[in-house]
């Protein structure tokens, strides 16, 4: 009898131990603990903010090396440089279409449900000082072009500007490709560096639960129940729109690719949870690149689509921009005609490009658009600044998942996607292996 109990108990303990070692489970557990601390000990919760700041800083430290290694080796190993240009053109076209669709969805929802109607806010009662100073740093086309040009070649690789690093990586990879046999030793060296960089990524990602714990403890302690009650309708409406967007738009795209959306979400659960908790899609860029390669997407496609997508394909932010703009107009009693709304969408299509997936980026774009269009006073942003962090949850979820779907679409479009491997990975019921076992899993999935 004792023997039976012991034998029966072993699998259960084994499953539990495996679950505890899973990154996504550690992130969920840390999120629960962070919320509890924020509610029960708000003072301590506010003091835990550095945990999230440190985690984000560690991720930013490794993001640019990942972009450089992946993009450079991807382009350098191409048989034809035209493929790089073709991938880039297809990706930008896809990004523009999805961004427009996202903004129109936000526009329609805000017009139908009128989340800001009835507030009757007096403009003179608004405090412009509550608007963060960073919101006045408006995005401009010339500023965007300037951000593409680094001060030096090596400076782009050692800095933290993704767009500049992406441009240098493309140029460097193209030069290596054209160098032929003379560039092979350097290409091999960068591939070896890539293995080292991704090992560091694995170590950094193991600290994600600490970042999650600090982030949620601080958010709950700082923004508490008052902000949720004050603008609860907008939060619920935006969240519901995000859910519908994922299920309808991204679901339709995945069905067209004959793949499972829920399988993809399950495969990327750790990355999505980290993005949600830290409110930064940039925080999962290195890990996302690695996971999509395991899924069966070619390195050239992943290397170009994902880094550029995190600046150009922010569909969650696009939904937020139109909904938030109309909310502010409705709250101020400003009736925008459909012509004015379409002009606003056009301005947002320009100002929203080139903002990397950093927490708060969409708020800066919103300020830029409000100023450029001129129909809504900038001080109106103080109405939503308190809940912007909460709204950012839906934005980053769609941004990360949407870019993963974009990589799949471009991969299939380029015939650089192993559909059978993707189906095996997405339909697998087993959990994702640790980072140091990802290469083994990739080889096994390809058998």
Automatic annotation (TrEMBL):
PROSITE patterns: NA_DICARBOXYL_SYMP_2. The chain crosses the membrane at residues 23-42, 54-79, 91-113, 161-179, 200-225, 231-253, 358-384. Gene3D superfamilies: Sodium:dicarboxylate symporter. Its main location: membrane. It is a multi-pass membrane protein. This is C4-dicarboxylate transporter. InterPro entries: Na-dicarboxylate_symporter (IPR001991), Na-dicarboxylate_symporter_CS (IPR018107), Na:dicarbo_symporter_sf (IPR036458). Keywords: Membrane, Symport, Transmembrane, Transmembrane helix, Transport. It is found in: Membrane. It holds the Pfam family SDF.
